[in-house]
Design goal:
The protein has 477 residues and is mainly alpha-helical. It is built from 15 helices and 3 strands. The protein has 2 domains: 176 residues, no CATH class; 158 residues, no CATH class. The chain is 71% helix and 5% strand. The protein has a 3-stranded antiparallel sheet. Helix 11 packs antiparallel against helix 12. It is globular. The termini are far apart.
Length: 477
């Protein structure tokens, strides 16, 4: 399910073969930057939430305290389960690690393990090497090359895969509702606590990072035979795109909830159940059963439970931003490999209309709190920010996507097709107008001849025209 190449070969390699493999085919051990960053965000959000919970407890805000506690503990528990599931620690004798997971400190010990592995990478000799065939794109040309991956690099890759999935869970099942809750509480109470502001900033950074990981995972799964290399400009476009999209979406929902509190529950439930049932409806239309290769040892019930949790995460992501992938429960990888521009256009068009409706309803039903705020300017700014998010998304797919040359259709092609269709319509319209011109000219000449019957120079012309018409008629017959 993680996009492991099918051409991998495992086996023992002798010392001479290992020495020969060192060079361009030897993979470099990269530092686990993503693991460290995910752990820092996890700890920072947990600590800031704990401080804010203590402040709520002292001030007597019981409702805000319990909601804040739930949005911290629930994703933390799912994070521990995901780490133990990816590393397969349930059947292994590791009591200390399992104890730390029970104390919600699993990411810290996993991060330490990854750092220790990276420090020992240059000192340890790998007797077990994986030979993987990977494709590289260099100036649009496909180049195939064998890469020898050692055991340390494989273990580090397992850590990276585990933390990428926990980052997505933490971002969209914890940080996103946490940011929405704290922003709503700040508007309702009409002041911002220092602890609340710190938690909101950390949550926003966690959400943007989780959306970035979603994009990179989607690229890796779709092009699992290729080595993914993203330029700094691509990261910049994705950060601006995701930051503006998520901030605008959260702000629109919070503003709408301050004006029509009970109706926002209906909006959230409709969004959630639509994206939750969409993969299952597609599966039902195909008239097949789920065949996702989640785990070989799972029963049908266990597979359905895992797939249901997977679709819940998919629905939560799509409520706030584009998930960058579409689920296909009938496929072994659970992900559609083809890039569907129609679904992307439909999502952003529908989301823009929904945000416009939410902001418009807020504008007409807003409370007295916004008397000192220029409401029309705020509404226009939100719509402009979402439009800028769409613009940076288009820039990413058009210029910064690492596999843009492999797209069958791109934004530039779509624009060219639309321009060609418009030009063809114009040409057809002009050619149609020109096709009627000879008839009008001939008709005008006939009227002139009828008006001048007595001129001898016109009589010869009148005699030739019927003859030519009769000859053409006979030839046609």
């Amino acid at each position: 399910m993680c996009g492991v190449p099918a051409e991998e070969q495992h086996g023992e390699i002798s010392d001479s073969d290992r020495d020969a493999s060192v060079g361009e085919n030897q993979s470099k051990v990269h530092p686990p930057v993503s693991v460290v960053l995910a752990t820092l965000l996890y700890c920072a959000e947990f600590v800031s939430a704990a401080v804010l919970i203590s402040m709520y407890h002292k001030s007597g805000d019981v409702i805000w305290m319990w909601f804040t506690l739930f949005f911290v503990v629930f994703p933390a528990v799912l994070t521990q389960l995901t780490l133990t599931f990816v590393h397969r620690d349930v059947g292994r004798d590791r009591p200390l690690v399992l104890l730390l997971h029970l104390l919600l400190l699993g990411p810290i010990i996993r991060c330490l393990e990854a750092l220790i592995l990276y420090c020992k990478a240059g000192k340890m000799e790998d007797s077990y090497v994986t030979i993987t065939k990977r494709n590289f794109l260099k100036k649009g040309q496909r180049m195939e090359r064998e890469i020898h991956i050692g055991q340390v690099e494989r273990n580090l890759a397992t850590h990276r895969d585990a933390f990428e999935r926990t980052t997505v869970i933490q971002a969209f099942l914890g940080s996103t509702p946490q940011l929405t809750l704290q922003l709503y509480a700040a508007i309702q109470e009409r002041y911002v606590l220092d602890g609340r502001l710190a938690l909101m900033i950390i949550s926003l950074i966690s959400i943007i990072y989780g959306a970035l990981v979603c994009n990179v995972l989607a690229i890796k799964i779709r092009y699992d035979d290729y080595k993914v290399r993203l330029r700094p400009v691509a990261y910049f476009c994705m950060i601006v795109w995701r930051g503006l999209e998520i901030a605008t979406r959260v702000t629109a929902l919070v503003l709408f909830s301050t004006a029509l509190t009970h109706w926002v529950i209906l909006v959230g439930l409709l969004n959630f159940f639509f994206f939750l049932l969409l993969p299952w409806v597609r599966l039902w239309c195909k008239k097949t059963s789920p065949t996702g290769d989640v785990e070989k040892n799972f029963s049908k019930l266990g597979t359905c439970i895992v797939l249901s949790l997977f679709t819940v995460l998919f629905a939560c992501i799509n409520i706030f931003c584009w998930s960058a992938v579409q689920l296909d429960l009938a496929d072994n990888d659970l992900i559609e490999k083809k890039h569907n521009w129609l679904q992307l256009a439909m999502y952003y068009s529908g989301r823009f209309v929904e945000n416009l409706l939410l902001i418009t309803l807020w504008y007409f039903f807003k409370s007295d709190f916004y008397e000192y705020v220029c409401a029309p300017l705020l509404a226009v700014q939100l719509l402009i920010c979402y439009s800028l998010a769409v613009l940076f998304m288009l820039l990413f797919y058009e210029f910064c996507h690492p596999f843009r040359s492999l797209f069958q259709h791109n934004i530039h092609n779509c624009l060219q097709c639309s321009c060609r269709q418009k030009s063809r319509r114009r040409q057809e319209a002009t050619s149609h107008s020109y096709s009627t011109a000879p008839t009008l000219v001939r008709g005008s000449r006939e009227h002139v001849e009828l008006l001048m019957p007595l001129h001898p120079e016109n009589s010869a012309l009148r005699g030739d025209r019927p003859m030519a018409f009769d000859e053409n008629t006979m030839e046609a017959a």
